[in-house]
Please model this.
Amino acid sequence: MLNLEEELQKLSNISTLDELDNWHQAILGKKWSITEALKNLGNLSPEEKKIQGGQLSSMKNTLQNEYQKHFDMLKTAEINEQLWKEVIDITLPWTEIDLWHFSLLTKVRRELEEIAHSMWFIVESWTDAVSKFENFEAVNIPVSHPATEMHDTIYLSEKDERGENYVLRTHTSAWQNYVLRKYWVPIKAVLPWRVYRFENVDATHDTMFYQFEWVYVDKNVSIWHFKSIITRFLSAALQKDVEIRMRPWYFPFVEPWFEIDTRYEYNNPKTGQKEMSKWMEILWAWMIHPEVLRNAWINPDEWWTGFAFWMWVNRLAAVRYWIKDIRYLTNGDLRFAKSW
Ligand code: PHE
Model:
């Protein structure tokens, strides 16, 4: 016959969860003592059954409660011990972890932003996805014009308030309308970010690249301002005496339009030999069309004029750091990324 005091005594002496489990199986488990004793009650008279049954089940409850308390205590102790073992040992010698690293493109872009700030231009950025209106019409490109095709790139399924699909901006000019409306005129702003294009990828072309666009609108702005700002910016950005060439060229929707090239040389770092030297286009410049100003509620008849130009940051990085292929800048190769 089970003795309550004895079992409680045993229970309080148990110090591991395994032992506790054994005890539980033997005393309270399906096949064991209490269950058996309860089954045997069947042979007794009804009065006896009542008395013994009552005693047995109150004993079972007491033991079950005590068991649960004991289990909780041992479990907590076990968890605490585990936590204590796994606690970080702050006395261990430390190792340097490379948490982050600027990509070369970010480094160059930030330098360009510094130059822009020093020339009292503000730096603005906005969303990757823009409406067709912002990307095309606001800067005077009719959506149906074939020239939009060379810009056609990634459309999203989300639609703008005109019910047209948003597009990943194909040029930072897609932000012109936004900044002109936000700051109005006069304005000196740079818009430096990624753009996405439908391109055949090669050593000097990529489907995603960084434009660094300048927007300047004031009263009576002329090509004279235009050229002096570009020259200052270029000499600061290129950081060395490189040759520059400015060519008037044709681009639909704007007049005049200039393309600016610089010398792109590649010296083999091992041999020091010049392996390549050619002109590379890095900057495009134009007068802002009066229609673009009107789209931002600016009246060009009140002598507001402006110009814009953008630099291809990836190409500038290639020229500055003698990088043979601009795809290195974005392909995620850590050996390249960490070497700057
Ligand atoms: N920003 C465009 C580019 O990336 C050119 C452009 C200029 C488009 C003016 C429309 C109006 O080359």
Remarks:
- The chain has two domains: 4-85, 104-337.
